[in-house]
Give the backbone structure.
Amino acid sequence: MIPVTVLYEDARDQKTKGFGLHDLVVQCVCDALGRAPWDVGKMLIGQPKNGANKLRAECQRNMDKLAAKGGWVFAVYDADRIRERIGLTVNACRQSVIDRLKDGCACADHLDVVLLESNLESVLHALRAIYPALETDETWRRAIEGKKHDARDLLFTAAAKPSPLMRPVREALLAQQPSFARLVARIARVL
Amino acid sequence: MAVDTVTRLYVDGLRSIEELAISLRGLTVLIGDNGSGKSAIVEACEILRRASTEGFFNDLHNIHGGLFSLLRHGERRLFLGVDVDGAGPPLVYRITLAQDGPYTVIEDELLVLEPEGLLLIARTRNDAQVYRDGEMMKRIEVAPDQLLLTAASGPFSPHPALPRMRRALANLEVHVPFEVMPSWVAKADGRRSEARGEMQLQRVDRLERLGKNLPNVFAALQNEFGTAHWNETMEYVRLGLGQHIETISLRAGAAGMHSLWLKLRDRDAQIPATSLADGVLSYLAFVALFRLPRPDRSLLAFDEPELHMHPELLARVLGFFEAMAEKHPVILATHSDRLLDALSKPEEAVRVCELEQPEAKTRLRTLDADALSRWLSDYRGLGDVRSAGYLPHVLAEPAEKPPTKDAPGEDGSS
């Protein structure tokens, strides 16, 4: 069993129990594959990195080790400000962004760069539009305006519940967030 | 409704602390070598809490070992003070305790209403005075071992600020790691594992130190604050322990005693608190601390919250403290690099306790935000920087002149 690693651009650099975004990705992959979260979760490792620069540095530093046994690595960046952060013009094409983010990475053929449109807040806003009763107004406020990790984790984890009620919510989210859907589909393909 | 919180803490002459003033806003994380004064600051908070009680003097002797054991070597006086603000004009409270031969005496005690500096109570060793509108109202008799604040803040208090200050002190909350020792250790050594134990159901308004009333706190969370609050509490439990947790329940045992049980999804059997892992039970206690509404808490201090915590679970617990720090000051004393790594704003929160030599006195250092920012471009967090041995590179220069209680400096460094 070769683990698949997902590195997320985030505002924290240390994995926290109940990392909600990753839990949601795991459950969406489970939905796609018809497998159980405990089965997928053990081979899908999620790791937050604080900012695009650290995420990029992590890929440059550790791709050879992460892909040593043929494992795949997914690097998930916020698309909205990535061009200026890596020194490209705002109208640089998507492929040139991906090529630049892969620069200096060993085993780049096993590195899949995903640009989340436009960023994590977009996923949160979409989730709120789909199912505002997911959590209390205060939790939504803390997650979106306050950018609080715990509130975001609560929301994503709530959306990741394997219950029949949440499956349509996730399907609607994937339909509204094509870049998020691409991430899920690509992970499902390599698992 | 506005609530009083402690905005500044003053400690002179306690253990390694010669003179210290620390501003308290949001989260304050104390780090430093063993013996550098972190726990002394936490203990100062507890002594100040006891100043709100009638039994202050007894507790000072019986629980804190008396002034002789509290005093810094060579000192004759212990000075403690707080600034409080929120529910009215700022208040300033100070106590000085002194050693007089074999006896401990209250040397000074005063309460001042800012910003006018209106004196409300003032006491010297033999004279206790209560003021009204700036005029001395009366001299009163208080026992030599009774604080004037408690004596004069009853139903006939001359000014509402007296009970206000007393409430603010009473609402200081000081914690040490929860007592979750394995049941077999407790039984083998004739000790009690507090958080695992059975208890009579009672109404509670706070989680007691060591997690002693944990079952009652969960009973309150389940029954007193509505379904939405309970559901969200369980979401927080699952965030840390996993989605396989279905619920937490209380079960009645013999003689009306109740204990905590954990129910897993798709399993009939429940797990009693006596069988839970140390870290699991500690995490439940942290959830209880976070989720039990305490609108009047004036300060929360926690010494070494990292005990029993997996690094990823510790990061989750830190999130609770950061959320609580949006409402009232929180002080954490820690040795955990992983906790430091997980801090949202280490440059604002962290104070480094150092023993200044040759006097071996505690001083607080702040971080240099610019320097830290440079290091964090390559390091995971402040803990990562510290474990690599580079903490001195991210310290701000010490203030040239230590701030005093009369002329407090910025940010609490002293």
Observations:
- The interface with chain A takes residues 228, 232, 235-236, 238-241, 243, 310-313, 315-316, 319-320, 322-323, 338, 341-342, 344, 376-378, 380-381 of chain B (CB under 8 Å).
- The longest strand of chain B covers residues 103-113.
